[in-house]
Amino acid sequence: PTTEQLACRSLPTRRHTSGADCYARAVTRPAALATLALLVLLPGFSASAQDTPVRYRIPVTRHEPSRGPEDALVTIVVFNDFECPFCSHVQPTLARLVAAHPADVRVVFRNLPLAFHDHARLAAQAALEAFAQGGDAAFWRMHDVLFANQRALARADLERYATAQHLDLRRFQRALNAGLHTAELESDQTLAQLFHVDGTPGFMINGRPLMGAQDYSVFSDLVGDELRRAKALVDAGTPRARVYAALTRDGLARAEERRQAEETPEPEHVYALAVPPGAPTRGAAHGRVVVQQFSDFQCPFCGRVEPTMDALLARYGDRVTFVWRDYPLPFHDHARPAAEAAREVRAQLGVAAFWRYHAVLMAHQQALARADLERYATELGGIDLPRFRAALDGGLHRAEVQADMDAVVASGAQIGTPAFFINGHLTQGAQPLEVFTAAIDGALGTAPSVIEPR
Q: pLDDT tens digits, residue range 76-97?
């Protein structure tokens, strides 16, 4: 996958995806939209207790930063990127797990800096140098500071944090200059690839894969299940310090082993998602192929995919209908007001103005406060600002936005943003152009769309 594919993860649609489809996408569980639940699972995993769970034999040594007792009954290996916002979101959950089970849960840290995060790799080097100088305590202090300051991870910031933590600054600078911990980083990255941890955050809980900044209850249920299994081993005579080895001994040595053992995948699911009247569209009026884009104006990955969508419009605009659908994630404070503002622009000025306003919002994702929304609308020209304000104050378009989200739930799909239904076939995330063109070309070569715009 390209680096753009490593941003966040998606729940597979009950089938095993190929390596090229192993895409890292942030997924929200529709049933828990009020919580932060970026639900992502690796193939074959269920968050509920299983009699025979998928388990990987992922190595744990004393050479990785960790916190919690070495004889913990549950070992959580975490793959993180210090610049990844979803990694930051999950930190309170991990802290809560450790606090709830201080004698039984250990967290082992692995670095997986994503290529499109400019400062992630250097931040990882900084954290590993802190570990080299001061052991676990120094590492976790640096770890916490880095996650608390994700927008300030430049070289000067890292040196400032090192100074504040009383590290040997000259040694710290030499380590960063020389890339002293590159081998450790590459080792972690190789391990991640081996077990198909393609995005962040990724977790192996006693070898059981779990992906994404999931809700605490998901982690708690899985940890609880593992504690029961571990305690059964201890009761049968296994020393606590040998529990992790015992549980993972028969696990898969690499994710590919599971792929090879799987049966032929089920056919790809086609979701019945009719285009609602009045949905903003562009391209062909009644295309053979309908691309419904579910997106969030505050989601950075939604912003990154917009140039790709423009390229698709230029290529297929006479044959394909592109439809905008709203899917504001609950932890993006400005996403829903932005969606309602865009709908009011459409109501007042038409679909062409909607797409101009849409482009402005995507270009200013860090400035979507109410005053910004009003300013952008005014700059379009022709907007009735008192009517615009009244629409937002009264939630005039709230039901329309919610209807888009409810449509996904009703279809049975589980998505994050951005998500695309191409004649009902789900493609998730800020994928490269080639992925979309292959999907659209394939759809164009089949029967006319069964989901026509209305």
A: 999 999 999 999 999 999 999 9
Element containing residue 108 per DSSP (H, E): strand 105-111
Alpha-carbon radius of gyration of the chain: 24
What percent of the chain is predicted at pLDDT more than 70?
84
**Distance in angstroms (rounded) separating the CA atoms of residues 61 and 357:** 53
Catalogue the E-assigned strands of 133-288.
202-205, 208-211, 281-283
Length of the chain: 454
Q: Band of the pLDDT at 121, cuts 50, 70, 90?
A: very high
- CB-facing half-sphere around the CA of 362: CA atoms within 13 A: 18
What does the alpha-carbon distance between residue 442 and residue 434 come to, in Å, rounded to a whole number? 12
DSSP string spanning 390-450? HHHHTTTTHHHHHHHHHHHHHHT---BSSEEEETTEEEESS--HHHHHHHHHHHHTSSPPS
Backbone angles phi, psi at 65, to 5 degrees: -60, 135
Residue 230's pLDDT band (boundaries 50, 70, 90)? very high
d(CA 397, CA 351): 15
Q: What is the DSSP letter of 267?
A: P
Query: Residue 343: which region, alpha, beta or left (left: phi > 0; alpha: psi -120 to 50)?
Result: alpha
Written as six digits, the tokens of 440 are: 């659209």
Please report how many Cα atoms fall inside a 13 Å half-sphere around the Cα of residue 367, on the Cβ side. Answer: 8
- Name, in order, each residue with C-beta under 8 angstroms of 81's C-beta and a sequence gap of 6 or more: 87, 111, 112, 113, 114, 117, 120, 124, 200, 201
Q: What is the pTM of this model?
A: 0.53
Pair of tokens at residue 77: 């290996």
| Residue 329 identity (one-letter amino acid) | L
Question: Is residue 325 within 8 Å of 335, Cβ to Cβ?
Answer: no
Residues 6+ apart with CB under 8 A from 194: 254, 255
pLDDT tens string 250-292: 888 776 665 555 545 556 789 999 999 989 999 999 999 999 9
What distance in Å separates the CA atoms of residue 448 and residue 454, rounded to the nearest whole number?
Answer: 15
